[in-house]
Amino acid sequence: MNPLDVIIADGVRSVLEEDLGRVTYRNVEREVRGMYGLGVREAAGDFAKLDLVLRKFFGRHAANVESKAFRKIMSLEKGGRGGGGGGGGATLNITHDTVTRYVFESYGDPAKRAILDMMRRPMTVPDVIAASGLPKASTYSRIRDLLDGGLLAVAGRAEARDGRSVKELSATLRRVAFDVRDSWIGVSAGLDNAILSRSFAFNSIVQTRARQSK
């Protein structure tokens, strides 16, 4: 699963429920459950699954349904903040309330913020625990939450001190900034090209722009 698609998954579910109408959305929901044993949010995080269902309902028009949903949640600008990893990237702007509040609350948790700040470069979980001084059990729990929500992603593998091969993790978003106005929250952050290239949401928006420019 692509971490960007996972981050915006709950926003996709919310937008589709609004855009499709109650009856159609419930039919899509039942089809997703029947095919994969998942809810719409979980299928949106692994978007190829939800795409297959939407194509069963809307045929070639599914691409427009998807792109419209993604554009209600976020916009992307090539260049700008970038990823800071030397691989180029883009600036991600998120405006959908469901997604921005998740990101805002995650970064508002002091322990999660400390983990995310440390993992601007790839690190193993034992290294994070050793460097942060955070309790082991709660660190594992928070890292699992951040992985499940897409804010952390597997970056590769490293050799542990005992010779085992262990996962290295890194923060998905870079240089995160919040714009808070009354009850509205906006999020701006950098994304690496490696994440963008595998994101169903990003590529859907790009392909739609290309079709519209012809």
How large is the count of helical segments?
12
Q: Determine Rg (CA atoms, Å).
A: 18 Å
The beta-strand count equals 6
Level of helix content?
55-70%
Estimate the mean pLDDT confidence: 89
Largest sheet: 4 strands, antiparallel
Shape: globular
Can you give a write-up of this model?
Helix content is 57%, strand content 20%. The mean pLDDT is 89. Strand 3 and strand 4 form a beta hairpin. With 214 residues, the chain is α+β, with helices and mostly antiparallel strands. It is globular. The strands form two sheets. It has a four-stranded antiparallel beta sheet. It has a two-stranded antiparallel ribbon with strand order 3-4. Helix 5 crosses helix 6 (62-73) and helix 6 (62-73) crosses helix 12 (200-213). It has helices spanning 3-7, 9-20, 22-36, 40-45, 47-58, 62-73, 97-108, 110-118, 125-132, 136-148, 193-196, 200-213, and strands at 74-78, 89-94, 152-159, 165-171, 174-181, 184-192. The protein contains twelve helices and six strands.
Can you summarize this structure?
The chain is 57% helix and 20% strand. With 214 residues, the protein is of the alpha+beta class. The model has no long low-confidence stretch (mean pLDDT 89).
Features:
214 residues; 4-stranded antiparallel beta sheet; two-stranded antiparallel ribbon; 12 helices; 20% strand
Lay out the secondary structure:
Elements: H1 3-7, H2 9-20, H3 22-36, H4 40-45, H5 47-58, H6 62-73, E1 74-78, E2 89-94, H7 97-108, H8 110-118, H9 125-132, H10 136-148, E3 152-159, E4 165-171, E5 174-181, E6 184-192, H11 193-196, H12 200-213
Antiparallel strand pairs: 1-2, 2-6, 3-4, 5-6
Helix pairs in contact: 2-3, 2-6, 3-5, 5-6, 6-12
